[in-house]
């Protein structure tokens, strides 16, 4: 059981090979934390809607995101602030308009696996 951390090595497995495969499958604790943080961004319907819109519509302004998602501009701005801090989106100013785009390729691949609902709702 070469992959089991020392503090758990005293425990007796049923199948050592399976335990090692599971440990390898989990990976580094920090990587698990990073993925858990990504998944938490997707866990609230408003954030998920904003992320999907930003990802699928390309660079988009807060006003347009509010119109597309049905979420108030204030709430969209708050969501985008959280997403920027998390490193999921970036903003680029074009004159007086700020447009947001997805800036996390791993998150983009996750969002690609979310099918749109029929009728766009």
From TrEMBL:
Keyword check for Ribosomal protein: no
Matching SUPFAM superfamilies: Winged helix' DNA-binding domain (SSF46785)
Annotated InterPro entries: ArsR-like_HTH, HTH_ArsR_DNA-bd_dom, HTH_MarR-typ, HTH_MetalResp_TranReg, WH-like_DNA-bd_sf, WH_DNA-bd_sf
CDD domains noted in UniProt: HTH_ARSR (cd00090)
One of the record's GO molecular function terms: DNA binding
Keywords linked to the UniProt accession: DNA-binding, Transcription, Transcription regulation
Gene3D superfamilies xrefs: Winged helix-like DNA-binding domain superfamily/Winged helix DNA-binding domain
Keyword Transcription regulation assigned: yes
Top-level division of the source organism's lineage: Bacteria
Segments forming domain HTH arsR-type: 27-121
Pfam families per the UniProt record, alphabetical: MarR_2
PANTHER family linked to this entry: ARSENICAL RESISTANCE OPERON REPRESSOR (PTHR33154:SF18), TRANSCRIPTIONAL REGULATOR, ARSR FAMILY (PTHR33154)
Official protein name in the record: Transcriptional regulator
The organism of origin for this protein: Streptomyces tateyamensis
Lineage, broadest ranks: Bacteria, Bacillati, Actinomycetota, Actinomycetes, Kitasatosporales
